[in-house]
Amino acid sequence: MARTPPPDDDAPSGDGRATRWAGHREARRLELVDAAVAAITEHGPDVTTEQIAGRAGVSRPGLYRHFDGKDDLQAAIAARSVQRLVEDLEPVWRPSGRPSEMLERALRAHLRWLAGHANVYRYLRRASLPSAGEVAAANVRSTVSAHVAGMLVDGSLGARVEAAVAHPLAFGLVGMVDAAAGHWLEEPHGVTEEMLGTHLARACWAVIRATVGPLDGPPGDPVGASW
User: Fold this and answer.
1) Rounded to 5 degrees, what are φ and ψ at 8?
2) How far is CA 218 from CA 28, 197, 224, 225, in A?
3) Does residue 122 share a domain with residue 209?
4) Which of 14, 117, 171, 224 is 20 to 30 Å from 46 by CA-CA measure?
5) Hey, which bits of the chain come out as E strands?
6) DSSP calls for 139-177
């Protein structure tokens, strides 16, 4: 007769205990992810698992008790980074001022986030390509792009733009900004964050105006019926 395995002490039975334990494990997992982000910030994009574990105060096996391998850890770091980016940029998405000023504020806030989290950004772009790291970088771009598209569609930037125009336009603009910012982080060529923000704001605004026409009308005016 097969022997019945002993109960797993790390997985308490009973709905109440199981729920509390799941919450505890999720909180602990988040603590480890935050420690990983701190280790990346300190040691750079080539941070080792041992350095992450050391920052978290656990052994390497202890770290991976909470993740299904390296890709799962990288995906968790990416998700946490996107969450923080959205939180940091949240005030930017509140419509106020002229459309061009709103666009410039959003760009500058995004550049500040990249400059302030340069090692994390590099890690997300380099780690485990083309899997978790590439998905992570794409998630950051997609998150910002979706917000910009929403502002174009709902009229927050001065006039309503049709979704068929707004979404490819937003994703294209954010892709351009991301590529330019990524290059600037590695090779600034004497360009300051302030200068880059001004250059990119002008370029993005020129593309928007060339694509959908002036956005100076009252909110709610439909524009961009065609390319």
Assistant:
1) -80, 115
2) 49, 26, 14, 17
3) yes
4) 171
5) 160-161, 222-223
6) HHHHHHHHHHHHHHHHTTTSSEE-HHHHHHHHHHHHHHH
* DSSP H helix total and E strand total for the chain: 9, 2
CA–CA dist 88, 85 (Å, integer)? 5
Question: Where in the sequence is the domain holding 181, given as residue range(s)?
Answer: 70-221
Going through 65-169 in order, the beta strands assigned E by DSSP cover 160-161
CATH of the domain at 47: 1.10.10
Total-model pTM? 0.71
Per-residue pLDDT of the chain (227 residues; tens, 9 = 90+): 444 444 444 455 556 566 665 677 888 999 999 999 999 999 999 999 999 999 999 999 999 999 988 888 888 888 888 788 778 777 776 767 777 788 888 888 888 888 888 998 888 877 644 445 455 556 677 878 888 898 889 887 777 889 999 999 999 998 999 899 989 999 999 999 999 999 999 999 899 888 887 655 444 444 433 33
Q: Which residues contact 55 (CB under 8 A, 6 or more apart)?
A: 35, 36, 38, 39, 42
Report the amino acid identity of residue 47: V
Two structure tokens written together for 97: 């001022």
> Same domain for 114 and 86?
yes
Locate 4 and state its tokens.
């019945």
Please report, as a single letter, which amino acid is at residue 50. Answer: E
Same domain as 49, residue 109: no
